[in-house]
């Protein structure tokens, strides 16, 4: 399965995360970034733009760079190839429109708050922490 995901950063250098619903099959009740599977005929970039709008109501304004491309096997048994991007968005950043039934909460975190992912280590093997940490690293590399 091919996936695209975005680490959304705000003007203060914080990263947006959202809590997956406890009823989700893949990584239930864990913190996550915006993203999902490509639809038939869709490019990685098209999927990224679509997923951001579907999951938050925001629109990608700029792709700052690629964080990583990684393979992982979800707790559902399926292998995925995911491309993770560092992005900025347009919209009311205080009021995302979380996708009903899929996400239950959101927050903005700083690099010092990466431990928010520690309680899901057993489920995702530290995957989300590494991706978000890579986003913070890329942000520093490009001088923002």
TrEMBL record:
InterPro entries: Nudix_hydrolase, NUDIX_hydrolase-like_dom_sf, NUDIX_hydrolase_CS, NUDIX_hydrolase_dom. It holds the Pfam family NUDIX. The keyword Repressor does not apply. Residues 1-133 form the Nudix hydrolase domain. Its cofactor is Mg(2+). PROSITE patterns: NUDIX, NUDIX_BOX. The keyword Transmembrane does not apply. One of its GO terms (molecular function) is hydrolase activity. CDD domains: NUDIX_Hydrolase. Keywords: Hydrolase. Belongs to the Nudix hydrolase family. PANTHER family: GDP-MANNOSE MANNOSYL HYDROLASE, MUTT_NUDIX FAMILY PROTEIN. This is NUDIX domain-containing protein. It comes from Asanoa ishikariensis. The lineage of its organism: Bacteria, Bacillati, Actinomycetota, Actinomycetes, Micromonosporales.
């Amino acid at each position: 399965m091919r996936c695209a995901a975005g680490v959304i950063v705000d003007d203060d250098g914080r990263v947006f995360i959202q809590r997956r619903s406890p009823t989700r099959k893949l990584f239930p009740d864990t913190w996550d970034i915006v993203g999902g599977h490509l639809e038939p005929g869709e490019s990685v970039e098209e999927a990224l733009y679509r997923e951001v709008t579907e999951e938050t109501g925001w629109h990608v304004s700029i792709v700052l760079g690629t964080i990583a491309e990684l393979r992982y096997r979800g707790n559902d048994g399926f292998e995925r190839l995911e491309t993770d991007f560092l992005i900025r968005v347009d919209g009311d950043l205080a009021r995302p429109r979380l996708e009903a039934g899929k996400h239950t909460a959101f927050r903005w975190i700083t690099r010092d708050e990466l431990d928010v992912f520690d309680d899901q280590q057993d489920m995702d093997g530290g995957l989300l922490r590494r991706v978000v940490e890579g986003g913070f690293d890329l942000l520093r590399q490009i001088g923002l």
